[in-house]
Amino acid sequence: MRVAMDDKGNNERRRPKFKKVDKHSGIPAYVQVMNQVKTEVILGRLVPGDQLPPVRELETMFDVNVNTILKALDKLKSEGVLSSEQGVGYFVTSNIAIESSIIDELGEFVRKIKNVGLDLYTTILLIEEVWKNE
After folding, report:
1. What is the mean pLDDT of each run of 10 residues along the chain (134 residues)?
2. Which residues span the domain enclosing 69?
3. How far apart are CA 104 and CA 128, in angstroms?
4. Which of 5, 31, 75, 90 is 20 to 30 A (C-alpha) from 59?
């Protein structure tokens, strides 16, 4: 893990902002783990060279079985997002960060969608339709 400075100039270890998987979402737990890791990379909170927390710590963070974590990490390795070193851990290898202006535009889009009263599920369906037609 790289060391970052907090607002007070103190060294602190950067920790990804992972949350427990939603076991009732209908989305496989390993996919949710993969998506959360990719999100941290896309948002630039994890960058090439960063080491993920140990597998047992990830198991606790996501509240899933260790085999689920290993499946997600293996798939992320096959996609080129992560690499691993035996006995050392998993490291970010891909830089798929998005420009902050795109994140800002996305935030504006979400505010507009919420203002007209659309829910997340309907918004996702609309985005999928637009995506297919572009």
Report:
1. 43 70 95 95 90 96 97 96 95 85 91 95 92 90
2. 3-92
3. 20
4. 5
